[in-house]
Amino acid sequence: MMLQMMEDKELVRMYLKGNHASFEVLLSRHKRKVFSYIYMLVKDRATAEDIFQDVFIKVIHTLQAGKYNEEGKFLPWVMRISHNLIIDHFRREKKMPGIKTQDEDFDIFKLIRIPEQSAEDKMIREQNVALVRELIKKLPKEQKEVLILRHYADLSFNDIAEQTGVSINTALGRMRYALINLRKLMEKSPLETSEVNIF
After folding, report:
1. Please, how many CA atoms are within 13 Å of residue 32, restricted to the half-sphere of its CB?
2. Between residues 130 and 108, the one the model is more confident about
3. In 3-state terms, what secondary structure has residue 112?
4. Which residues, at least 6 apart from 154, have a Cβ–Cβ distance to it below 8 Å?
5. Which CATH code, of 3.40.190.150, 1.10.10.10, 3.40.50.1000, 2.40.30.260, is assigned to 119-195?
6. pLDDT at residue 41, as a whole number
7. Whole-structure pTM value
8. What's the rounded mean pLDDT across residues 33-46?
9. In a 3-state reduction of DSSP, which class is residue 196?
């Protein structure tokens, strides 16, 4: 079986047996999500690159030390490491992060679903996406974080709860209110709401 077709857990096992190419596949598969998550929080590319490198150094050391729990999913585990290193960074800087939602790589979970049949359709879609990004910035911090972790970082609510230090019910509640508030903001905006589909 080609490495690219293997699940994460299989690639981890291959890496632990000495197949370094399997780790390259893991890195290639997840690096964009991990880096974008870090960058959205620290808001500085150089800092994000440093933290990203530290994350995967820690991943490698943890794997080689035999401390990785195979029952957990690889990406949520890496995201937790990222989260902890981001917190460490801001503790050193003595300031708390906000969440950047206007990163150029950030597509608001493909909320805007307009068939790109013409240049005009494409322009409308791009304008709507840009507006939704601005609306997300108006959400309370806790709601904004859950929204990003769920639909951008693709974490489960169990993983979100563990990462943010709250119960699953609290994480679910924050998501519910985030979507309700986002819908209200959309209704007050010039957004083409007929073309918007929120899950």
Report:
1. 10
2. 130
3. strand
4. 33, 75
5. 1.10.10.10
6. 78
7. 0.58
8. 84
9. strand
